[in-house]
Write a structure and sequence with these properties.
Helix content: under 10%
Strand content: 35-45%
Mean pLDDT: 85
Number of helices: 1
Low-confidence stretches: none
Number of strands: 7
Largest sheet: 5 strands, mixed
Order of helices and strands: EEHEEEEE
Shape: globular
Structural class: mainly beta
Length: 101
Amino acid sequence: SGLEPASRCCTFDLEGKRFFVCHGDDHSRYREALESKKYDYLIMGHTHEFSARHKGNTLVINPGAVTRDDDESFLQTVAILDVASGEFEKILLSPEYEAGD
């Protein structure tokens, strides 16, 4: 199939864009990747909370988490990314626990 398991962090190209993907708890590798300015997208996790922001030319996305936390206010989320346009969408998997309820 040509697929290999990823290590804690990996890089790859897709549709002419450069990706850095890491769990997010390796702060030094995360900072190094972000400061290198060579990635279009930096995807990370660890906090289980959705976030998306631009840092220079890099879009940093934390898609959140799909597993339930013990906290009743925990939101199960994923993200969909259009690689070509850079547009993304946060998908809420647990609408019964939306903020404010």
